[in-house]
Amino acid sequence: MGQFFKSISIALQNIRANPLHTFLSTLGIIIGVAALVGILALGDGLEQTGREQLANTTSLNMITVNSKRTKTVDDIRIQIKDRPEFTIEKVQELKSLVQDKALLEYTGTRSAEINYKDSVSGIYLQGSMEFGLQFLDDSVFFGRYISKEDVINSAKIIVLSSQIADKLSDSRDGLIGETVEIEDVEFRIIGILKGGHQSTQKVFIPTSVYTELSEEYPDIVLKAQKAEQIPEIENEITQWLDGNYKETSDAFTISTNRARVEQFSQGILLFKLIMGAITGISVLVGGIGVMNVLLISVTERTKEIGIRKATGAKKKDIVLQFMAESVTISFVGCIIGWIVGIVGIFIFVPIVNSFTEIGEFRAAIGTGTVLSILVIALFVGIIFGTYPAWRAAQLTPVDAIRHE
Question: I need a labelling partner for 297 at 20 to 30 A (CA). Which of 24, 196, 258, 338 fits?
Fold first, then answer.
């Protein structure tokens, strides 16, 4: 270990003694590493931004459970008539099973018309349970939301979104207790929501009433507290289906949006690999520069090498000295390149944001980027320092000392 640090010390002395040689030899590495840092940081930032946008536009924590609408027989898709359905009691049972990990809603949505006095408006009619409000980025502004008794009793009540309420009347609170008509069925307005983006143009009725009115099966929708819990919740749902619907458990589908996230991440990874490979070429060119400078150094320091070997230095000592010098030069170049890359990112990103209107674009420096720089420094130093070190070690003491 002492010999190693001694070699590092000698390498640093030689670097300080030949600053111009060192700078020229590391210039290619500096440029290559700076470009590589920029590419990796921009790739990480793009991935983070993309994930956030996906999270805002796609319910990544959502799990949907529904009965299959079709089946395939001899490569022909056939509609299933006697599809199994969930009862309110079974939905409540599943809710109790996963309540520590996820919120649950039993819901369906379709378009319809709502009639109030002389006005007619297009709406999205959505079935909801008593805990459905937890799914909405909203709260009750006037009145109340659907209760458990409303669901059990199939009460003909309705909750309006703020947008629909404003279409029907200039006075939101005046609508409470009023009657509206949807497909010849009268509903009493019991609540108006404050106004969240997920409840736009929607009205909410008990899921039990929605099933009667729509003659279609609602879906069980779960919102996991954490995306990491989704596989565990999926497994629990599968076991629950197997236990409660033994003969028809394969008639249900469990779907998530994980595939979209995985595809996006794979695309970003491919981008970083391709761009990293392209910029990595300049790092290799820089490594060749290091090798050339070290070969020149071997020639210039032939007499020094001969004296060291004559005074007892072995081949491995000479190899270690030049390898240490190669790794040190590469490491210094990588550090400078890393700094240049970071500074370049801080300059580049604000310029990009000032010319675009697609949202805030940013870079991110991950642990993987930092580790990759260290690996590159070690790799370049070892690979391109091997031949100069070997050549220096092959010199004989007599020939080396006689060399001028």
Answer: 338
Structure tokens at 301: 């320091």
* Three-state secondary structure call for residue 386: helix
In 3-state terms, what secondary structure has residue 390? Answer: helix
Residue 86 CB-half CA count within 13 A: 28
Q: Is 44 helix (H, G, I), strand (E, B) or coil?
A: helix
The per-residue pLDDT for 10 is 67
Q: Pick the closest to residue 63 from 264, 259, 246, 247 (CA basis).
A: 259
Query: Using DSSP, how many helices (H) and how many strands (E) does the chain show?
Result: 12, 13
* Radius of gyration, CA atoms only, the chain: 35
Strand ranges of the sheet holding 252-256, from the earlier edge strand across to the other edge: 102-107, 219-224, 62-67, 252-256
Amino acid letter, residue 67: S
Per-residue pLDDT band at 344 (split at 50, 70, 90): confident
CB 29 within 8 A of CB 330: yes
CA 196 – CA 200 distance, rounded (Å): 7
Which residues sit opposite 66 in a β-bridge? 253
Tokens 């590391």 belong to residue: 26
Q: Helix, strand or coil for residue 88?
A: helix
State the maximum Cα–Cα separation within the chain, in Å, rounded to a whole number.
111
Domain boundary assignment for the chain: 2-56+261-402, 62-257
Backbone angles phi, psi at 357, to 5 degrees: -125, 25
> What is the value of pTM for the model shown?
0.55
DSSP secondary structure string for all residues of 159-202: EE-HHHHHHH-S-SGGGTT-EEEETTEEEEEEEEE---GGGTTE
The string of pLDDT tens digits covering residues 354-379 is 776 655 667 777 677 777 777 877 78
pLDDT at 169 over 80: yes
pLDDT tens digits for range 103-144: 888 888 889 999 998 888 899 999 999 888 877 767 888 899
